[in-house]
Structure formats: structure tokens, C-alpha cells
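#structure-requests
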Amino acid sequence: MKAHNKLLSLLLLQSLLCLTIAGAFAGQKEVIIPVKEGMAWWSGISNHGELLPMRNGYHANLGSNYGNQVQPLLLSNMGHVIWSEQPFEITMKNDTLTVISPTPSLIYTKSGTTLKEGFKYASENYFPPAGKLPDELLFSAP
């Protein structure tokens, strides 16, 4: 009887551990894109300008904020758009772009065939212009 209880306890502990691990990754969303010849990607990190377009070895985590100069946006020169309302992690390795979000907030779409069309789509759908100038204080006392 003791061996049966011990086995039952062990199975229960294993099940609980599996559920805990699965729960930690349940909301994660991952986008993996093979980067074809001629395809280029840009991130929305202002101070990474010299690192863009992305090359193999590029890595960034938008949760780091990069001096408050981050837009959760990726654009390709072939009209691809990746957007999120939450920070995500980007890796370019072996001609593959991998984007991982801890939440199911990634939106991946192909909105045309050029960088211009991708940016236009992103602007219209995720950060449309309000038609107003920022407060004058932003310019007079930055």
C-alpha cells in the first residue's frame, strides 16, 4: 500500500510540474520567418540604426526599452509587418528571423510588396496620426 501511495504521489507531483511549466509558456507566441535572398528587416529601435537592416547575429529584447526609443514594430522591404502592444524578443540567426513574445500579442501580416507599403499599413492600423501637434513644451523644454 505504501508503494502505491508513493507512486501516486510521484505521478501527482510530475503532473503538477508539467502543468506549471506548460502554464509558463501558454501565452507565448513565436513567429519564425526564413529570410530569403534580397529580404531585409528593420526593427523599431532608434539607437540600433547602424545595425539595420538586421543581419545574422542581431539580437534585441524590446523589454530593455533602449532609452525609451523603442517602437514594437518590425518591417521588411517586402511588405511584411510584425507589431505588438507588448515588448518582444528578436533574433536573426542562420538567415531566420525569430520573434518571441511572452504574451499572445504578436500580429504578423504581409501588407504589400515594399517597405513603404508595410510602413503605411502599420501607421494606418497601429499608430494613426492624430492630426494634432505635440505640446509646445516638448520642443521648448525637452
